[in-house]
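We treat protein structure as text, and this decision shapes the records that our systems exchange. Such a record has a labelled line for the sequence and another for the backbone structure tokens. The record that follows is passed on verbatim for readers who wish to inspect the format:
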Amino acid sequence: MKKFWAIACTLGFSAFWVFGGLSVLAFIDGHPLFGAVLVLALLGLGAGIWARVRLVALTQELARGERVTQEETAHA
């Protein structure tokens, strides 16, 4: 399952950078901005962040919401 979330994270952030870059280049060159490109960039960002959060939750040893104390880090 970790590989799935890693691939989903990569694809989501790749879509964000591609479509976000296209919209920035269109803005710089003075071309009209298409709403669909901005929506795809935001969807890619959302998917990348969500997949990253799921991936981090799977790879961490601590349950969500727990804090690491100084005593625990001193023994590591």
Notes: The chain has a mean pLDDT of 84. Residues 2-59 form one domain. The radius of gyration is 18 Å.
